[in-house]
Design a protein that fits this description.
single chain; 208 residues; Rossmann fold; 5-stranded parallel beta sheet; 5 strands; globular; binds cytidine-5'-diphosphate
Length: 208
């Protein structure tokens, strides 16, 4: 069974994807890490994030050692990831890695922006997770503060809105719900309720 989870920043998609993976005993890939790691390689080399050729080479050359979540989870890297994520050749370079992960025996859970639309259009269950921008900014601010980052709510909200716009407006694999995705608005839901709803959506798909 392949489960595709998409949605904007801090909507809860990562937590839901991790919990679904544990629930069904499936491996999980947070595809945002691929874009974050690509951006990190460029920044480490002092290269421009919008240099399509170098960004594509960085994406092709990603190694497992590039996925240090501690280094990649910061606010700056989220923004940088959305710059490299808008480059079509970067997305193409990361396609096979994601499809191979999804093709494992037994299936997988993947979360990102284009899993249901581009990476796994034939996924067994697709969920598009949303929440109001202010709620997402509150969650992200708490998360970043927990990492010891200095946070200002207004800045976090502005970053989230900027990324929503950039991710939705890009021509290559924009952030959009697949036609057959079920929407899950987590604005008023705590984690347990959101996960319970996600499991119910997957179960309904399996039976249907
Ligand atoms: O947790 P959050 O949503 O803030 O970040 P993320 O999922 O790690 O994604 C960071 C950025 O990577 C996004 O704003 C997207 O621009 C890009 N991304 C993408 O283009 N496609 C994906 N499948 C995953 C992430």
């Amino acid at each position: 069974m392949i489960i595709a989870i998409d949605g904007p920043a801090a909507s809860g998609k990562g937590t839901i994807a991790r919990r679904l993976a544990a629930h069904y005993g499936l491996p999980h890939l947070d595809t945002g890490l691929l874009y974050r790691a690509t951006a990190r390689v460029l920044l480490d080399r002092g290269e421009r994030l919008d240099d399509a050729e170098r960004a594509t080479a960085a994406a092709r050359g990603l190694a497992l050692t590039d996925f240090d979540e501690d280094l990649l989870r910061g606010a700056e890297m989220g923004d940088a990831a959305s710059v490299v994520g808008a480059i079509p050749d970067v997305r193409a370079a990361l396609l096979d890695m994601q499809r191979n992960f999804a093709a494992r025996d037994g299936g997988a859970v993947l979360d990102g922006r284009d899993i249901g639309t581009v990476i796994c259009p034939d996924a067994d269950a697709k969920i598009f997770v949303t929440a109001e921008p202010e709620t997402r900014a509150q969650r992200r601010a708490l998360e970043l503060a927990g990492r010891g980052e200095k946070v200002d709510f207004t800045d976090v909200l502005a970053d989230i809105r900027k990324r929503d716009d950039r991710d939705s407006a890009r021509s290559s694999a924009p952030l959009v719900a697949a036609a057959d995705a079920v929407r899950l608005d987590t604005t008023a839901l705590d984690i347990e309720s959101a996960v319970a709803e996600a499991v119910a959506i997957v179960e309904a798909r399996r039976k249907g």
